[in-house]
Amino acid sequence: MGTVIGVLPGIGPVTGVALLIPLTYSYDPVTAIIMMAGIYYGAMYGGALTSILINAPGESASVVTTLDGYQMAKQGKAGTALGLAAIASFVAGTIGLVLLMFLAPSMANIALKFGPAENFSLMVLGLTTVAGLGSGSTVKALISATLGLMLATVGIDAISGRTRYTFGFIELLEGVDFVVAAIGIFALGEVFSNVERSWRQVNVSIDYGGFRNLWPSRADLRSTFAPMIRGSLIGFFAGVVPGAGATVSSFLSYMTEKRLSRHPERFGKGEPAGVAGPEAANNSATAGAMAPMLVFGIPGSATTAVLLGALLIFGLRPGPTLFTQNPDFVWGLFASMYIGNVMLLVLNLPLIGIFAQVVRLPYPILTFVIVMFSVLGVYGLRNNLFDAYLLLFFGIVGYLLQKARIPAAPLALGLILGPLLERAFRQSLIISRGSYTIFLERPISLGILVFAFVLMLAPPLWGRYRRLRNHTKEVIASEA
Amino acid sequence: MWQGVRRRDIWTVLGLLVVMGVYLYGTFQYTDRSQPPNARTFPYVLMVLLGILIVVLLWTSRNSRDSAHTTEADLDTEDDDPLLEEDPSLTRLGILALMLLAYLIVMPGVGFLFSTIALGVAMQIIIFRGPRILSLVVAIALAAGAHWLFAGFLSIPLP
Q1: CB within 8 Å of chain A, chain B residues 129-148
Q2: What is the pTM assigned to this prediction?
Q3: pLDDT per position as a tens digit, A363-408
Q4: With a CB-CB cutoff of 8 Å, which residues 150-179 of chain A face chain B?
Q5: What residues are paired with A155 via a beta bridge?
Q6: A403–B85 C-beta distance less than 8 A
Q7: Contacts of A184 (CB under 8 A, 6+ apart)
Q8: Residues A339, A344, A347, A351: what is their CA dihedral angle, to the nearest 10 degrees?
Q9: Using CB atoms and an 8 Å cut-off, which of residues 2-61 of chain B contact chain A?
Q10: Among A152, A299, A278, A263, CA closest to A227
């Protein structure tokens, strides 16, 4: 199902996981989250499939794969590229999972020592890095996060018990439901945005040369072994940093491989390492992104933000205590991720032909299915049509955000972290008797805030420095 | 103040000011006379933060417009989805939004199945200009499938 979602145009992992949350209501929390994690994995691979076959990345993390993957397909090596992508995903998923299993419990032990001030700073770090490391304008991403935090204040205040921002709607007393907002902004917003422009049906020949051609040659495997390992490590650690995620990791891996290669000129012209490295990185990043989500309750990406929202719906509160209070859930999740990884390889390679046909599904039908599932999904939350009206509102919000080039992921993150952030903020202020300096007086809190500040300011300052340097070079060249 | 600022950013700022206004109005709707930090403290911090970000957005927008060099934000303005054509139509979008609104209003009266079939047919024919008979067949099949999945399999009582 995850691979199909990754392949379908207009549906990425975030939308897919958000849309399928309602289907998991009848399951127990462990089964539900396992299913969603599987969809997450599968969608990452599905994105690579369309990148290689038709030069259309299913989601942003697969953009880099088009550079060499599509070139390989044009040279008649689509099967090899698809096989390499699947093997790289498997290797990276395994390495990422092993790292997650060893690092997450240690991180949880450290997190247990955190007080409200440290927790507040950590959540600020999560929000600012998502804003700072994403593509596009940092300011707009921060605006998006602030809007998410504002939305999170709707409903009954957990500390004082007062009602805030409900504007007379009793349905809003419990606050804005994350699933309604996520499906509205990501799924319906995407539909609105695509309907505004006419959708051209994909009509391409999808030829990967049959199942036999999927297994790469020994030479290809040997030349891509190191890029796979490097990509896995880069992906995992980039995934751990909130906000960096799969897209940044795939670009980082591609640049690293190009720099380390003896033939950098081959990149962009069908180099197998240009497929294996980024594919390994974006898959390993999914495991890395799970670490901050499970340990600190801070999602590392938009998809893990949706997963976090789903965990809260099932009554599981991610954080360091999750490892001690729900060990069966945590280890069950790890085990299932490993099984999902094996299934990815076993199922996806033989079924590539079928998945490739999914690209041809007419968009009008897909749009109707998305709309129907969105409405039914949010209606099923409380059997209340008010949520469906709210969905429509958030669909329009999602569309307007796209129009204004404001990323939606920080808003989702703000909505999830808002209640936790406010509680930590006010608890800290109660402890310090109203003094805001508490966040700067505690060394760990101060360190995290400084780190957040540096991460937020580094990309725009680096960009400014680069422009200034290029401008100086141009002036010197023109004078010469 | 607005000179040199991108038109899209002007609309963004105006929209954000409306959001701020609604939020401020909402803040005054509830009374909280307890000592800070109270229920109003965090919303006030958020409003100050949003105000600062709006000023920074205007400032950066004006500066990037002035700059002859392409910024990362400017690069983000181009659509690079190869599956989409450049033919924006607000009418199609408006019709879809109205259809959905009508669908939600009508659903409790006529039931999920009929309203969903009507929505499906209307979407296929009016927005995507699909063939009538096929649109009807597809809408009936998908609506019936969804009804079985949610009402039958997941036991969610649908209208």
Answers
A1: 130, 138-139, 142-143, 146
A2: 0.76
A3: 788 888 888 888 888 887 788 889 999 999 999 999 999 888 888 8
A4: 150, 153, 157, 159-160, 162-165, 167
A5: A164
A6: no
A7: A374, A378, A390, A391, A392, A393, A394, A395, A397, A398
A8: 170
A9: 8-9, 11-12, 15-16, 19, 23, 26-27, 29-30, 32, 34-39, 41-43, 45-46, 49-50, 53-54, 56-57, 60
A10: A278
Query: What SS3 class is residue A164?
Result: strand
Minimum distance, in Å, between the CA of residue B85 and any CA atom of chain A? 6
Provide the b/e sequence for B96-132 (b: ≥16 CB within 10 Å): bbebbeebbeebeeeebbebbbbbbbbbbbebbebee
pLDDT of residue A359: 64
Residue in chain B lying closest to A56 (CA): B82
A278, two tokens: 């980024």
Looking at the predicted structure, is the pLDDT value of residue A439 above 80?
A: yes
- Which chain A residues touch B63 with a CB distance below 8 Å? none
| 76-95 in chain B: CB under 8 A from chain A | 76-77, 81-90, 92-93
A143 touches chain B (CB under 8 A): yes
Helix (H) or strand (E) run with residue A444 in it = helix A443-479
Please name the residue that has the structure tokens 């597809």: B138
ipTM: 0.85
Residue A164 backbone phi and psi in degrees, to 5: -130, 135
For residue A9, which of A236, A201, A287 has the smallest C-alpha distance?
A201
Distance CA B32, CA A88 (A): 57
| Interval A70-107: pLDDT, tens | 888 778 787 888 888 888 988 998 898 899 888 888 88
- Token look-up 């109005």 returns B25
CB contacts, 8 Å: B84 with chain A: 194, 197-200
Fill in the amino acid letter for B10: I
DSSP A155: E
Determine the angle formed by the axes of helices A29-54 and A13-20, rounding to 10 degrees: 150
Element (H, E) at A131: helix A116-133
Q: Could you tell me which residues come within 8 angstroms of residue B68 by beta carbon, excluding any fewer than 6 positions away? A: none
- Report the distance separating Cα A112 and Cα A110, nearest Å: 5
Whether residue A326 contacts residue A28, with contact meaning beta carbons closer than 8 Å, is answered with no
Please tell me the least confidently modeled range out of A40-49, A168-177, B52-61: A40-49
What pLDDT is attached to residue A253?
87
Residues making up chain B, counted from first to last: 159
**pLDDT class for A242, splitting at 50, 70, 90?**
low
* Percent of chain A whose predicted confidence (pLDDT) is above 70: 89
